[in-house]
Amino acid sequence: MINIGIIGFGTVGTGTAKILIGNRDIISRRTGFDINLKRIADVDIKRDRGIKLPKGVLTTDAEKILNDPEIDIVVELIGGKRPAKDFILKAIRNKKHVVTANKALLATEGNEIFAEAKKNSVEIGFEASVAGGIPIIKVIREGLIANRIMAVYGIINGTSNYILTKMTDEGIEFSDALKEAQRLGYAEADPTFDIEGIDSAHKLAILASLAYNIPLSFNKIYKEGITRITSQDIEFAGELGYKIKLLAIAKATPPSPPLSRGGVWGGEVELRVHPTMVPKDYLISKVDGVFNAIYINGDAVGDTLYYGRGAGDMPTGSSIVSDIVDIARNIKKGATGRIPGIGSVKSAGLKIKNIQEIEAMYYFRFSAFDKPGVLSKVSGVLGKHNISIASVIQKGRKVGGAVPLIVLAHRAKERDVVKSVAEIDKLPVVADKTLYIRVEGREE
Ligand code: HSE
Questions:
Q1: CA pair distance 298, 257, nearest whole angstrom
Q2: Fewest C-beta atoms under 10 Å: which of 144, 168, 366, 444?
Q3: Which portions of the chain are predicted below pLDDT 50?
Q4: 0.85 exceeded by the pTM?
């Protein structure tokens, strides 16, 4: 028998307990051994969570789990940085394996936690930290181990995807869509992490460290949220054949040549989270609402896509229990540490590229006074910085007032885009700060 202790009886803790109890038989039939939920600790053990637990399981004292010699695996589900980190480190030092969904903690302090786990010969399961119920950690660490990963593109924040979907489908503005997400309980009370790309960046740090054998690099990820996107941008993007999605992107650039062409792993990796225009006919453009999806291209496998629920009690519980079973199987075979954690394998030595150095296609929304000669002034600055225009949209007339001037540009360097925008925003014909959105996908 393998004994489990859960710290944190909130949404995911409740889902995990429901699965461990409700599916105990089927899991035992599949694994050949029993997994016993011995204890759950939470500050509130009175609230009804709609689950019947055997007597004595609930406690308000996390130490009863951390110091119990019979408990093999500690599941940390309180979230946040403290005391979560203290509990995790104590469990590790007491030679207990740990399972956690704590993406913010792992992304920012994971290098230390994984090093401590290695030192104490215990495992950290973190499948539930990225994309809820989608087993994406297993995909990268095991399913795609044969591949050089060329690119990862993820919709890995359900709240912002819900907001963008709502703005697209109903033509409403960001603030109204956010209110709706809060009303439905998708967004956090303080939704900054969701809408400013921080939550996506936490998850991207974890995915990229596995895909590219680099240390967790949250601070080096470029982060830009969705707060400046208007329903007009969504409409213009639609006219140009695109959807706007908040993407978490990791890609090797220059792309290391595929295996078939004698490629060697090298170069740099781009790590960025920002609103992105994606061709409407791409599968990832069709991922709507609170759903998550991750596209991965590997040099051997080619294109792959993983889709599912990125949050919620039962989907996230599904990933937690999957980690518990993996660790339990390893314990039974005396083979813990079989699959290395983050930072345990030799780094591939890829450098993280500065956002200024990236290249992409770009959508610009200039706010220009509707006067003769404006377009030539704007295009003149773009041309001077080697930015070539693919299409232009200008609609509506506001005599003397500002109107949006939309420009889609061919592939350009971010450094040149930044310089052009700084110059254009100073032109007397420009009324407001320019917005630009990076465009991914085939070059038109
Ligand atoms: N706030 C996250 C989201 C929850 O909206 O996707 C899951 O990590």
A1: 11
A2: 444
A3: none
A4: yes
